[in-house]
Amino acid sequence: NVQRGGRYSRSVAVDQAIADARESVALLINAYSPAEICFGMNATSFIRLVSLGIGQMLGERDEIVITDMDHDANIATWLALAPAGAKFKWWRMRDDGNLHVDDLRPLISDRTRLVACTVTAHSIGSIVDVAAVADIAHAAGAEVFLDCVHYGPHGLIDVQAWDCDYLVCSGYKNFSPHMGFLWG
């Protein structure tokens, strides 16, 4: 409960603690720089913040790909952009409970603005080949938003290898205080 950026000891200590935390999260997810990390209430609030920004930049690239594997936070938040002109394409799981990248290819076009998907669905154990998702999306000029909440406690996160544009995670699922973080 201090003002950040102050010259008194408690303010300096808080600023240093946040800088140290950014460094730790940058190492955790293999970020290029700690400056790419934002802390906030939770992953859901960051999905909403990014969606509001994307909603302001739709233009001719008005299509957003969402999946039926995702948590509602990574579905409803994007669907809320319909009044802003967003169009949606559904990348659906197959009967084996997986999202197959071959099913993503026909959904991507020069109108695709973003592919939003989870890295894993913990309820069924499916893991998405997010590096392949990024290859497909980026080849068309689209961006990739990854929800890493369910994957974070179970595997190594590597934003560089995955070549995503945005990633959210709930820190409290990774033994931190109740908070979320955004990488971008």
Structural notes for this entry:
Helix content is 30%, strand content 21%. The strands form two sheets. Strands 1-9-8-7-4-2-3 form a seven-stranded mixed sheet, sandwiched between helices. The chain has a two-stranded antiparallel ribbon with strand order 5-6. The chain starts with 8 loop residues before the first helix and ends with a strand. The protein contains six helices and nine strands. It has helices spanning 9-29, 43-55, 76-79, 101-104, 130-139, 159-162; strands at residues 37-40, 63-67, 87-91, 112-118, 120-121, 126-127, 143-147, 166-170, 180-183. The model has no long low-confidence stretch (mean pLDDT 93). The chain is globular and about 55 Å long. By secondary structure, it is of the alpha/beta class.
SSE-based structural type: alpha/beta
Number of helices: 6
Overall spatial form? globular
SSE series: HEHEHEHEEEHEHEE
**What about the largest sheet?**
7 strands, mixed
- The total beta strand count reads 9
Strand order across the biggest sheet?
1-9-8-7-4-2-3
Low-confidence runs of at least 5 consecutive residues: none
Termini separation (Å)? 27 Å
What is the beta-strand fraction?
Answer: 15-25%
Helix content: 25-40%
